[in-house]
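User: what does the whole thing look like in 3D?
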Amino acid sequence: MKAIHNLLDKVRPNFEKGGRFEKLYRTFEAFETFLFVAGNVTNRGSHIRDAMDMKRTMFHVVIAMTPVLLFGMWNVGFQHYKAIGMEVDLLDQFLFGLIKVLPIIVVSYASGLAVEFIFATIRNHEVNEGFLVSGLLIPLIIPVTTPLWMIALATVFAVIIGKEVFGGTGMNILNPALLARAFLFFAYPAYLVGDDVWIYTNLQEGQQLIDGFSGATPLAYLAIGEIEKLPSVLEMFLGTIPGSIGETSTLAVLLGALVLIATGVGSLRIMLSVVAGGLFTGLLFNIFAVNPYMEIPAYYHLIMGGFAFGTVYMATDPVSASQTGTGKYIYGFLIGVITLLIRVVNPAYPEGMMLAILFMNVFAPLIDHYVVQANIKKRLKRMQTAEVKTT
Amino acid sequence: MSEYSNTPKEALFSPQNRKLLTNPLGKDNPINVQVLGICSVLAITVQLRTSIVMAISVVAVMGLANVIISLLRKTIPPRIRIIVQLTVIASLVILVDQVLKAFVYDVSRQLSVFVGLIITNCIIMGRLEAYALNNKPWPSFLDGIGNAFGYGWVLLTVGFFRELFGSGTLMGYQVIPGFLYDLGYENNGFMILPPMALITVGIIIWVHRHRDRSLVDIS
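Assistant: Here's the predicted 3D structure for the full assembly of 610 residues, as structure tokens:
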């Protein structure tokens, strides 16, 4: 540690004003503050010191994502070997997934951070830590078969159009990771939708798919009405089903949710209200139940597709979600409702989590506005009645 | 002494008249700065060819409409000026539509209802109201085609990028080489959808304001 510190101190003059790499100061600063606490201190006014800065917040989210990521890697291998009918042990399954998922993570981070560093240099602001999370979220919400150049393009698009245009981290209206997925979804639907994209099935010589193989996700079965082919509840809860890399396992997501809630990073209100909204709409469908899709138990919706993942990691994004307490309930509840509406009522999209969250991201400021206005009105009224009483 | 001697005859392309032509291209662009006529930009820029035809049509309609209204400006009663303007624009649009149907039928079909909707293009009515009603025919003509060109170049830029990345073609000819497709390149389906036209216009506005800082509103 001491050695790295000395090295940084030695090269620092090169990056400071007048140094050879003056222009790259922000790059240097980013790496320095990533490794150590910055050396500059406040020199006027009183400040509250809190270790919970943005870097640590973001790192908590990364920790919360590890169970999902590890499980996702294993599931990639598990689904692949299941598809070709080979029996291999747990480690081999995990290693296969690791080899497939690692390049996606590298590409996502490299392309996104490149844009972040360029903008930080041009606009002379600090490189923000927001992408630490977005860069890992993007690989988790796409199929393992997505071509790498598409991921790079989508990441660049999301960071520039979703974030930098609005002024960088903390100013974005939409969740950047979901925006990257939405870009892929609309730009290259053949790689994001369908039954062939969720499981890696590029076969080597001598391998072949087992009889009756299908890569369809539970939601895809439901969309075409083949309910009898649904996996069991346990399978869907554990996540041994086809799907985007990180979204399948509700169990792993719950572990992540525990971390987020315990550290206070993720909003419990939003998570609960999304679940409430989903269950409410599911039960409503059960009451009417005009087709088989509407008859499935409401809790099925919570463990299928990206519902759990979106609830815990996407809807709770502190920047794009509602900020007010009441607003969070409304925001979350409507996400749950809209997700199920898209899933069940709209035959064009089997999954609605992404679109629902993006949609509510757009409305979050509006919700906040009305919540604040209602509060102001209430307090004004209280004041007026108090005045009347005193006079 | 005649009453005209006080106003010396202005040269056809005096600096003031040239400004009428060049201002709408940059500083006063109807799309980038005034944010008018966006709907047609979203609707007809999927291909470069339709964009070109649309741009030419709008140039013709705007130039002529401005001249006609300017000639009539002293006889139009102010209370019914809007309906007169609409009548003039609508007649011109019908003319354009007939010409398109006669000579470029397939493009006319692709543009479909949007040729008729030139009538509702707010840029045209805006210029008639703001300029042609109070100015002589020649400056009005310059103002009309200037604004139409300002509209046109944005249309062409958007159409160029949307067709290039959305379909891999330009003017219907394959531009992106086949070996790229063999390497795994795919046409971007998002470019064909209207939201991407909006984002493309947004990027043009971004670049435009970056180059001309006087447009940036810092109030």
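In plain terms: Chain B has eleven helices and two strands. The beta strands of chain B are 169-170, 173-174.
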